């Protein structure tokens, strides 16, 4: 080939991105939209794996003294189920949705640090793979997802499983931290002209506070994991009580991360719900200012309540009381949010499309999870309820009833924007009802079993304790839930090919992401949008009655 | 409520937190009733408003006029900030009172105080009870898996103070009808106070995941009338029965590695890693409540503990049937 022909070939390759193989595009992308989708796909895969782990747990607990699985298999299953759902499903799916939407919502072309963004995803995925590698390297860790010391010391946890767990979470955590940095930098620095911080979509506001919590909570976890690895491999004694270390130190360090973590898992959901309820009630969000202040209050308070996970370790009454009061205080801003959502619906024109169906599921369930949370904050009551199936019921209620239902609402809402096609409403309705009924049947009885004395993390139980009925109901509920996840994955995949074309704004919504095509071009917006209010598209549709007159 | 739960419980064993038999469990039950009532009211109101909205403001099609846009209302939002704040304030008050009632520092033992002091050590995966002091008198014997305590009268209370420790990882002592959970944390001592209001068998189990056999760390608290308790106490304080008919078995026991872990008071076996066997046959269960204590189950256990409680810290010793049967004959005399 002549030199001119060679140069022409090189130039053609650079100018026609279609010639790049699809896999290469996804593996090397720094586009926030592709990275968002990668996070979500990772989360959905781990959701199915974690769900299978839960199903086996429930089948084992169907009958007392069941021998379906070995004791240590069970202990590994609940450790991996918890670790998977928190670190490889919950956080990635919310970070993924945030990644996709935040630049679009603020009128930006991408995140502030695109390459850091890509690094964050791959680190998160690699951490997950490292933790799962333990299955083939001698067995899963059997330490519980919060890995209390000194059970994690080499004396009590032989083999390499705990090391894989700690190392995997360490790597994953670094990735998560970079996502937090990116969100803060982007939201603070890259908003469209006219979009002051008081005018950002509510989801962006909650992602901002989630990221503040990420910055606050991930470093202590990382430090603790380093300490565990040092204890196990280099002879240090941070948590090695027999050599002067402290078991309580681990608990404080872990929960200092652990409590903000659960707010990291719920704040983005509060944001998504705050986008969806207004659109499907056809009314502006009631009390944006109070809602925004409540979000910040929740974030701050959540930093100071961690020891409510440790009420039974024997802290002084004064300390117990402080943590109880702080934990009870968080119910005030959370209540404000619930009332504001209800007030948004009140007097509106509510349309129960699938996003709204899941949002109602969220609203109806989260209030219950919040109330059982209040019960747990009452220290003496907690002395009976903690570490029993009551608390298993509580946190699954807020994580599934809250995080999962809210996430499904968000996915059903924004799927048309991401793919250009609508999800099947019929499949979504089936998914919703199977999940709603199955979920209530699984986790409701757990509250009763806990109050009847059933502790958590037991691979079996004695007959005649009065726990059989509640366990059986839970297992039946799990079996009802399982097909809903199959339907969900099917809906996601099938609708990408056969879904109804969506258009730019199928829900007639008002924030900037709906002002561009579905899916958006790689550069997001053709022209830089200039905003005057929180609902730019409402202003365009109602030039005589724009939002900025009333905000 | 408590009858409903007991009825629903299908069986003879009752571990309901709503059926207290000791002061701290009772304080917690009383507090919980108020809290459940308040939460119930909030639940009804919030879900009620939600249902009202769904029923009255629904529409079946996407098209139509936009409803009036309401951006907020300062008075309303202040009101529904103040109301929850008031409820939280009330909850804080009742929490404080119950907390101060339930969490108390143990007193120092004094003579004629009718108090029993026991040190509980949680171990993977059984419970060790060292009886320290009763009614001001030193006791100093160790048993395991069954905690006998006296039941006082209205005029003569007999408090039981437990000091909770751990020999290895974190455990938690939970007997729901007697008290809330108190953790056994290695490196520290926690305290819990029991005072059963009636005799009976109160069940519980370890409530902090502690490894492979966490599920089988049962707690059996035998609350008995004072005279029966004091009889049990006196018996436990005695050294082991020395039946000359099983002298061969005793010899076998003392020459095997059994003595590295187990103690039989009155013999040269002074091991402290496993349960004290001095009065093994006075206990109703083996393996921390997993199986009944009978010659057959004991034989199965000594032959291969791993078959009964996989991963427990006692290995199978590969004894010949003859040696093992001699050993069992000796153990069966340790009443």
Name its key features:
heterodimer, A: 551 residues, mainly alpha, Cytochrome C Oxidase, Chain A, globular, B: 335 residues, alpha+beta, five-stranded mixed β-sheet, three-stranded mixed β-sheet, 12 strands, disordered N terminus
Overall description:
The complex is a heterodimer of chains A (551) and B (335). Chain A has 551 residues and is an all-alpha fold. Chain A has a single domain, classed as Cytochrome C Oxidase, Chain A. In chain A, 67% of the residues lie in helices and 0% in strands. Chain A has helices at 3-15, 22-28, 32-60, 71-105, 114-133, 161-189, 202-233, 247-264, 267-281, 288-302, 317-329, 331-345, 354-377, 379-385, 389-419, 425-451, 468-498, 536-541. In chain A, helix 4 (71-105) runs parallel beside helix 15, helix 6 (161-189) runs antiparallel to helix 7 (202-233) and helix 12 packs antiparallel against helix 13. Chain A is globular and about 65 Å long. The termini of chain A are far apart. Chain B has 335 residues and is α+β, with helices and mostly antiparallel strands. Chain B is 36% helix and 20% strand. Chain B has nine helices and twelve strands. In chain B, strands 3-2-1-5-8 form a five-stranded mixed β-sheet, with no helix packed on it. A three-stranded mixed β-sheet of chain B has the order 4-10-9. A two-stranded antiparallel sheet of chain B has the order 6-7. Chain B starts with a helix and ends with a helix. Residues 1-11 of chain B have low confidence and may be disordered. The chains are: A mainly alpha (551), B alpha+beta (335). At the A-B interface, helix 4, helix 10, helix 11, helix 12 and helix 13 of A face helix 1, helix 2, helix 3 and strand 9 of B.
């Amino acid at each position: 080939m002549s030199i001119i022909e060679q140069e022409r070939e090189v130039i053609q390759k650079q100018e026609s991105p279609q010639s790049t193989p699809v896999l290469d595009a996804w593996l090397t992308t720094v586009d926030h939209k592709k990275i968002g989708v990668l996070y979500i796909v990772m989360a959905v895969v781990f959701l199915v794996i974690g769900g299978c782990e839960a199903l086996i747990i429930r089948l084992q607990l169907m009958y007392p003294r069941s021998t379906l699985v070995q004791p240590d298999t069970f202990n590994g299953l609940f450790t991996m189920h918890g670790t998977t759902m928190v670190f490889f499903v919950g956080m990635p799916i919310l970070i993924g949705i945030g990644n996709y939407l935040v630049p679009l919502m603020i009128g930006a072309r991408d995140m502030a640090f695109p390459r850091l963004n890509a690094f964050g995803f791959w680190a998160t995925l690699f951490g997950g793979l490292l933790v799962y590698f333990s299955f083939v390297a001698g067995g899963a860790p059997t330490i519980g997802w919060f890995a209390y010391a000194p059970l994690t010391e080499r004396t009590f946890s032989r083999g390499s499983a705990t090391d894989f767990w700690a190392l995997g979470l360490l790597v994953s955590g670094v990735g998560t931290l970079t996502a937090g940095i990116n969100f803060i930098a982007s939201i603070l620095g890259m908003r469209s002209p006219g979009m002051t911080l008081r005018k950002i979509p509510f989801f962006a506001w909650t992602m901002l506070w989630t990221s503040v919590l990420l910055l606050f909570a991930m470093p202590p976890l990382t430090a603790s994991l380093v300490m565990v690895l040092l204890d196990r491999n280099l002879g240090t004694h941070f948590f090695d009580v027999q050599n002067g270390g402290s078991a309580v130190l681990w608990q404080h360090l872990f929960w200092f991360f652990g409590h903000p973590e659960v707010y990291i898992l719920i704040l983005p959901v509060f944001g998504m719900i705050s986008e969806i309820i207004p659109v499907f009630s056809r009314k502006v969000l009631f009390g944006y200012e109070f809602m925004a202040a409540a979000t910040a209050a929740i974030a701050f308070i959540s930093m100071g309540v961690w020891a409510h996970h440790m009420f039974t370790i024997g802290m002084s009454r004064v300390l117990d009381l402080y943590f109880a009061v702080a934990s009870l205080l968080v119910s005030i801003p959370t209540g404000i949010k619930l009332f504001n959502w209800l007030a948004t619906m009140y007097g509106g024109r509510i349309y129960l499309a699938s996003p709204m169906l899941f949002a109602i599921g969220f609203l109806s369930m989260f209030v219950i999870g919040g109330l059982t949370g209040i019960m747990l904050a009452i220290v003496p009551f907690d002395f009976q309820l903690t570490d029993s199936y009551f608390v298993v019921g509580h946190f699954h209620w807020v994580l599934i009833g809250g995080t999962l239902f809210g996430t499904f609402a968000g996915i059903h809402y924004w799927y048309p924007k991401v793919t250009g096609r609508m999800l099947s409403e019929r499949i979504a309705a089936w998914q919703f009802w199977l999940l709603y009924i199955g979920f209530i049947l699984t986790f409701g009885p757990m509250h009763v079993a806990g109050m009847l004395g059933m502790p958590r993390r037991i691979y079996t139980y004695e007959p005649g304790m009065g726990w059989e009925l509640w366990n059986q109901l839970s297992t039946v509920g799990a079996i009802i839930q399982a097909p809903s996840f199959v339907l969900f994955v099917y809906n996601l995949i099938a609708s990408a090919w056969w879904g109804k074309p969506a258009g730019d704004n199928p829900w007639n919504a008002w924030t900037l992401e709906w002002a561009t095509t579905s899916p958006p071009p790689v550069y997001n917006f053709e022209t830089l949008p200039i905003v005057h209010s929180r609902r730019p598209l409402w202003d365009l549709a109602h030039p005589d009655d724009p939002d900025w007159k009333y905000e | 409520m408590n009858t409903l739960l007991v009825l629903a419980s299908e069986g003879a064993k009752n571990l309901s937190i709503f059926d207290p038999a000791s002061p701290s469990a009772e304080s917690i039950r009383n507090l919980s009733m108020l809290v459940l009532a308040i939460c119930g009211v909030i639940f009804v109101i919030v879900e009620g408003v939600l249902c009202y909205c769904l029923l009255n403001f629904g529409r079946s099609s996407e098209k139509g006029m936009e409803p009036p846009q309401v951006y907020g209302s300062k008075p309303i939002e202040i009101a529904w900030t103040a109301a929850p704040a008031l409820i939280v304030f009330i909850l804080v008050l009742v929490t404080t009172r119950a907390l101060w009632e339930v969490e108390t520092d143990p007193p120092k033992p004094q003579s004629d105080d009718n108090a029993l002091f026991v040190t509980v050590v949680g171990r993977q995966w059984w419970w060790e009870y060292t009886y320290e002091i009763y009614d001001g008198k030193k006791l100093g014997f160790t048993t395991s898996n069954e905690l006998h305590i006296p039941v006082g009268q209205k005029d003569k209370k007999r408090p039981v103070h437990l000091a909770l420790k751990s020999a290895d990882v974190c455990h938690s002592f939970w007997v729901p009808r007697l008290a809330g959970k108190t953790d056994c944390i290695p490196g520290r001592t926690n305290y819990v106070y029991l005072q059963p209001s009636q005799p009976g068998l109160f069940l519980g189990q370890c409530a902090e995941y502690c490894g492979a056999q966490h599920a089988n760390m049962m707690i059996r608290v035998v609350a008995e009338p004072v005279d029966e308790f004091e009889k049990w106490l006196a018996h436990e304080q005695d050294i082991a029965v020395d039946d000359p008919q099983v002298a061969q078995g005793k010899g076998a026991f003392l020459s095997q590695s059994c003595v590295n872990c187990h103690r039989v008071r009155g013999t040269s076996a002074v091991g402290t890693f496993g349960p004290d066997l001095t009065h093994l046959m006075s206990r109703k269960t083996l393996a921390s409540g997993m199986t009944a204590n009978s010659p057959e189950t004991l034989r199965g256990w000594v032959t291969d503990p791993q078959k009964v409680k996989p991963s427990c810290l006692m290995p199978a010793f590969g004894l010949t049937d003859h040696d093992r049967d001699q050993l069992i004959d000796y153990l069966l005399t340790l009443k």
